[in-house]
Amino acid sequence: QHGHIRNTNSAKEVWDNLEKQHQKKTLTTKVQLLKRICDMEYHDGDNIEEHLMEFEDLFEKLANAGSKLDEDLQVVLVFRSLPSSFDALTTTLENRADDELTLQLVKGKIINEVLKRREPSAVDSVVLKADEKKKSVGCFFCEKPGHKKKNCILWQRQKKEEGASSSEASGHREQTKVSKKQAKAKLAKSESEAFTFLASECATKEWIVDSGASSHMCANRKYFVSLSEPRQDTPKSVTVADGKRAVVKGVGSCKFSCVGGGGDEKQISLSEVLFVPELDMNLVSVGRLVQKGARVIFDKNGCTIANGDRIAAVA
């Protein structure tokens, strides 16, 4: 620093020169730190603890340089560094009250989410799953378990096509003309492809798959097989379609039935469902499914949900 005080005539000039030089260095440091913070990115599979620790270190260095960031801005910058696979989590956290959204809370939720993803996945761990447990009841027409002949879609379609009478006895005489190999071939095809929840054959038409929903939500108490008071990490309210806030009354698990394209009745189970009585429709969150490792595919035939190579459901 000797060069900065050379040719000065007073102590004040010395101080002023040193102060200017220090301010330049401090500004450069702030710019560099902010650039590093804004460039921070987390990729699935990285060490999340190291990622968050680096954020803390940069925030502290910036504060020491004279520019301490507000906590809400720190939270925003952490959210910004996460990939799209965390969208459901960030949306849920954003719905919390501002005074509850602390950096420590956010860090804890992010770490918990990463730890959940590291657990071994299984079909039962997918939030939306088809209950395919073998049942003692079997269909005499397609010879598949899980439903009776009178509820078999293949039987009903065949009965309608051949103009059979409404009685099952008469229908049975008509169906003997049909090759069981043909019925099995149709069923095998439906099992090798995604089974379809036909809108006209679904036990309830009140559930829709929503790519914008941050959580599974249900307005009807009758679909809950278990329901408890909102937990500490449960959002107190959610934003509905008209922009208003709807109160979350509880959280639990829901179950409803749909008929697959192969004629089987499927029990659909949802966990971590928010009980929001003010909703007009019950929502299945795409974000929650993806968060659990499921693949969600929309096409002209509907929406397919799969876990790995196995189809979990189609709506």
Automatic annotation (TrEMBL):
Keyword Acetylation: no
Molecular function, one GO term: zinc ion binding
Region (Disordered): 163-182
Claim: Secreted is one of the keywords in the record: no
One Pfam family per UniProt: Retrotran_gag_2
Domain annotation CCHC-type: ranges: 139-152
Keywords assigned: Metal-binding, Zinc, Zinc-finger
InterPro entries named in the record: PolX-like_BBD, Znf_CCHC, Znf_CCHC_sf
PANTHER family: OS08G0421700 PROTEIN (PTHR47592:SF27), PBF68 PROTEIN (PTHR47592)
Name of this protein: Putative copia-2 aa-i
